[in-house]
Specification:
294 residues, mainly alpha, two-stranded antiparallel sheet, 9 helices, 46% helix
């Protein structure tokens, strides 16, 4: 969903100047608090519990409130609701930043939003880098699985049942990391079922992999895994959502112009729409394209 012409981003208040929580939790966690408040409609209590680890509720949202107040994100409407909570709900990071940057151009006096623009831009760049690192490691794991499966040159029977399955959430308390796992075995099976042919077009030629002596293919989640939070009751890491594509098509999806990647995504979604629905993943092309703009 694009930013509505009717959206009004209220004037941010002067910073509280209290940076104790900023120093305590670090910029990455601060970015998450701001994003979850502005984009995911989370209130202060939810932020303290879900992001800052105050699960007993005794802080009553004060910690995240102090973080937000430092950036001037405070104030309530006539319904006693935080005025910035969910203001960008359903809007991509890219579109929100573009909206705020245009706001400064139109109203040069709105210097109050400069720091928010910096925060959101830094968050987007960090997410892009993290996703790139995860993708590289994931593709390496898939290659190793394919090498192992094909080493004895024995045909493997794969039985795939499209059904709803629970997301594979993990949490590492020591490293303070959490997320949703991607199983390289599932992606490996998707490539095997596709018989090492690109699902955009079987005519797409690629090189022979030195690891498994077959045409090199990569696995791609049609609905990106970073949006697993939008599907809390079903996993996106499922055969129906994973296609085998040649490396050129994979790069095209991530780096080409909108006109080019929209055509490919529309084709892939149409091929898998019924199977995705059977897995509890109901999505239309417009919603999917919005995800790729983030």
């Amino acid at each position: 969903m694009k930013v509505s012409e009717n959206l009004i981003f209220p004037l941010l208040e002067e910073s509280s100047g209290r940076d104790r929580e900023i120093k305590q939790f670090g910029i990455k966690k601060v970015e998450e608090v701001i994003y979850h408040h502005l984009f995911l409609n989370k209130d202060h209590r939810q932020l303290d519990k879900e992001l800052l680890g105050k699960i007993d509720g005794t802080t009553k949202g004060r910690i995240s409130a102090n973080i937000l107040y430092y950036y001037g994100i405070k104030g309530k409407n006539n319904k006693n609701r935080a005025i910035y909570r969910g203001i960008f709900h359903g809007i991509s990071l890219l579109d929100a930043v573009e909206y705020l940057e245009n706001l400064i151009v139109q109203e040069p006096s709105r210097r109050d939003i400069v720091n928010i623009i910096k925060i959101l831009n830094h968050l987007k760049n960090s997410l892009d880098r993290e996703e790139g690192d995860k993708d590289y490691s994931y593709l390496e794991e898939i290659d190793e699985y394919l090498k192992e499966v094909l080493k004895d040159n024995v045909e493997k029977t794969i039985n795939i049942v499209d059904q709803v399955k629970q997301p594979n959430f993990y949490e590492n308390i020591l490293d303070k990391k959490s997320g949703y796992r991607r199983n390289p075995k599932i992606a490996t099976e998707s490539i095997l079922v596709a018989d090492f042919k690109c699902e955009v077009s079987e005519d797409h030629n690629t090189f022979i992999s030195k690891k498994y002596n077959k045409p090199y293919m990569e696995a791609h989640h049609i609905v990106p895994m970073k949006f697993q939070y939008k599907f809390p009751n079903t996993s996106l890491d499922t055969h129906a959502n994973i296609v085998a594509i040649c490396p050129n098509c994979h790069r095209l999806i991530h780096h080409a112009t909108e006109l080019e990647y929209e055509r490919i995504l529309d084709l892939l979604l149409n091929k898998r729409i019924t199977r995705l629905s059977n897995c509890g993943i109901d999505i239309d092309i417009n919603t999917l394209l919005l995800m790729y703009k983030e």
